[in-house]
Amino acid sequence: NVWPAIAEGKVKPVVYKSFPLSEAVEAHRLIESSQHIGKILLLP
């Protein structure tokens, strides 16, 4: 189970790029393009 390792800070997700919620369409385009490695975040 990976959750304890994440909680302890031993494993961290790779964040590729963050977008404000107002740019959700652009974030979705990036996801669809498969040109990223890591997570795409939408921020409030």
From TrEMBL:
Superkingdom assignment: Eukaryota
| Keywords, sorted A to Z | NADP, Oxidoreductase
Molecular function per GO: NADPH binding; oxidoreductase activity, acting on NAD(P)H
Q: Which protein is depicted?
A: Quinone oxidoreductase PIG3-like
Originating organism: Trifolium medium
